[in-house]
Amino acid sequence: MDTSASPLSQEDFEEIARAAARTNESVRLEFLDGKIREKAVPDGYHGRIIEWLTKVCLQARPELWLYGDQGLHVEAYRRGNARPDGCLARSGAFEGAGEWASTEDVEMVVEVTSRDRDTNQRDRVDKSAAYAAAAIPVYLLVDRGNQSVKVHSEPEGGRYAKVNEVAFGKSVSLPEPVGFELDTAPLLGWVG
After folding, report:
1. pTM for this model (two decimals)
2. What are the pLDDT digits (tens) for 137-190?
3. 51, 93, 124, 149 - which has most CB atoms within 10 Å?
4. Cα(97)–Cα(82) distance, integer angstroms
């Protein structure tokens, strides 16, 4: 659905997303770049990668939690709504926030690419711009298609000033405020 001809309000999108979820529990909608997009339903490898990242984050930073599927308001980017695969924030950060929360306490967002036709535009382009515009310090993209991990950091002017890409199997530094090394070797077994 292209909403560029008639701008969709935040409230209208949220009502559409609620109605879609009531009709079909597997439908998850996002509102990026002025367009409603359906987020792909994750496969088993996708879920395994998020499980692994949750454990790694908890071991490295026990005061934080990797929240799965917490919706975020990314208003700075055309009043959008994103549903990252993971949001790293302090434990309890989203209590009482509802389906769509502020990005204020988010230290890192995580996306794992899916096997759908929109993944290039959505995960590699639109979400990078949305998360940078919302000033989320780190965006971690686990790119199964390219078998690489991209760490985006230093958001400024609607984009990330630094992007560090490594092939699966190598270690990569997650910069502050996350602040730990990520060994990506386990990802070699979950390319799927």
Report:
1. 0.81
2. 999 999 988 899 999 999 998 899 999 999 999 999 999 999 999 999 999 998
3. 149
4. 15
